[in-house]
Each structure stands twice: as C-alpha cells, then as structure tokens.
Here is the input.
Amino acid sequence: MCARYTLTAEEKEMLKDHGLTLVGEYRPDPNIAITDFGFIVTSDEPDIVQRMNWGIIPANAESKVPEFSSFNIRSEDVMEKPTYAPLLQARKTCLVIADGFYEAEHLSDTDKRPWRFTTERKIFCFAGLWSEWFDPDTKEPYRTFAILTCEANSTVGEIHTENRMPVILYKSEEPLWLSKRKSVDELLSLCIPYPDDKMNRYRVSKKALAVSTKDRPNKNMDLTQPVEDEPRQSSLFNIPDIRSVPGVRRFKNTKKKKSEQKKLDNSNGLDLFNSL
Here is the structure.
C-alpha cells in the first residue's frame, strides 16, 4: 500500500528530468495524500505534465466523491477488477512523478513510525492508471489517478506489514508503460519490486502521519527530514531489542561514493534494524 508520497523537487528539476511541459501551477509537496493532486504524465498526452487528484473516480460514477478505496491498485488483480480492467485495456496508463514515499511501521496500536523511501534517482515515477469523470451539470472534466502496487522488496517489506510497495519504473521503462502498442501482459510484466540496492529508507517525524486539511495544514518541508529512531521495548527475556540501535539505515545509492555511505557494524550477521 502507498497512501502518502512526496514530490519536493523544484519545477525546473522535474521538467528537465523528463523533458516535458507543465500545464498549470506547480507546487512542491512533502505530504501528498489521498484526494490531493499529483503531477501526472498520461499515455494520451505524453509530452505534458498535468495535475490530477489521487483516487480513481470511475467515468460512470454519480459524483466525484469516492465510494470505495481507489488510490492503490494491486497489479496482480487489476484485470479482475471491473473499475480498473477497462482502463488498462484502453491503455489509460500514466506516470506518477515522485521523489519519495512514506510507509508506517506498526509496532503497536499506539506506536506507528513513518519511514520515507527514496531511490537512486532524485525524481522517479510510479506506474499508474487514470480516469476522467465529467460533472453532469457543468460538463467540466475531473481527472483522477491511482498507483499500482506489487509485492514489496526487503527494503519496504521489513517496514510494511502488508508486504506491498508501489510499482517504481526504471527510466527506460517509463515510455514502455505509456506505450499504446504494448500488450496488457507486457505492461504488467513491468510491475515488479524495485531492486533493494537502488533504494534508501530513513525514519521521519510522526508528524508525517497527519493528513493535511484546510484547518490544519501539514505541508511543511521538514516532514521529509530524517530523525533518529526511538528506543524500542525490550524482549520478554530482558534481552535488548536490537532494533533499538540508533542511526539511519541506508541502502546502496549508485550515485554516491562508497566513502559517503555510513556503515553499521553487523559482524554477527543479524539484521541490525529488524531482527528480533
């Protein structure tokens, strides 16, 4: 599941990275939540970046108020879902531009700790589907999108209890996902876990768990900053929980020199972050 992601890059960085033109206003967002707008490139208009709201509203819906959870789509089940199968069959594919996403580690009902995940690319794209709904009174279009998910890699799966992650595309796969000539099977073959050695993760403030509202906005750029992990409860046998070891776990980033990578002492072969 991916219920929160980020796009904090500057406008010129986003456009330069993909060689595209922006339609409308751009504003960096460290806390894009369901029903917020994201920046999308569609198979119908692959040369522009446009804003759409997160959470598919079917074209035949009575209103633009979501009637069910439609922000994520399981890639394994997409062709079995009457809402999503027609979109994929019609090649209503899209790229969801991002530079990170959040998942919460559920240690208990009262202890949920958010982590931010990034890749070796500063800006990357999720595989998505999009839909267009027309207001019956004004005839104005309302465009929405959803993010496809797949089985999680270890980087995400160690944190996310449901073992899911968004489908992250390689740069070379982005035009393939937008291609109207590819078969459904060819498109779905792209929906696999992103490699662990191309991802990083780090703890962020619990403030990132709060959804932004008009009365209580939560769009401060500090949300993406790393924080030290909090101590964890000892085991039943009074053996310190090894997950309480402070520090930020970072995976290999191909754009950084090895000397810049902080290494943790793991001589005993245990996972210093998630071993019990």
